[in-house]
Each structure stands twice: as C-alpha cells, then as structure tokens.
Amino acid sequence: MKKAVIKKEVLLSEMKRKKVLSMKELASNTGISQSTLSLIMNGKRSPGSKVIGSMIAYFECSFERLFFYDKPLTKVNDK
After folding, report:
1. Which is nearest to 54 in space by CA: 35, 71, 37?
2. Which of 17, 18, 28, 48 is 20 to 30 A distant from 75 in Cα terms?
3. What is the CA radius of gyration of the chain?
4. What is the CATH number of domain 3-67?
5. Threshold 0.90, pTM exceeds
6. Are 53 and 12 within 8 A, CB to CB?
C-alpha cells in the first residue's frame, strides 16, 4: 500500500505565503492537532484523508503540490 508523505519544503513555502508563523498557528487554522502535525512532519505518521483535505483546502492547492506517494518497501526475497 502506498502512503502519502508531505513535501516539507513546499509546506513551509505555503506557510510563508499565507503568513503562518508556526506549526501551532497552522494547527489552529486547519483544525489538525499539533501532535498530529508533528508526527507527520517527522515522518512518523502518514496523513489521512481528513488531514490531506484540510491542508489542501487551507492552502488552496492540489494534492500533488503538498504531498507525494511513497513507494512501499518490499522484501528482497519476495518473488
């Protein structure tokens, strides 16, 4: 299964464009908890559809602008 990953540099650029100064402010503006944002930014959690929807609606951009799909890892011996 593929997982969505946030493009950190694009997110930071979009935050700057919207004059959002902190992750706390972004969390408040999008309705996403600070802890969830932190986990996503640190690659410890994949964003779900609610987070993805909130982010693209808030930044008024496409999925492809803010996220990409990471390929799943496969075992070397899988045939």
Report:
1. 37
2. 48
3. 14
4. 1.10.260.40
5. no
6. no
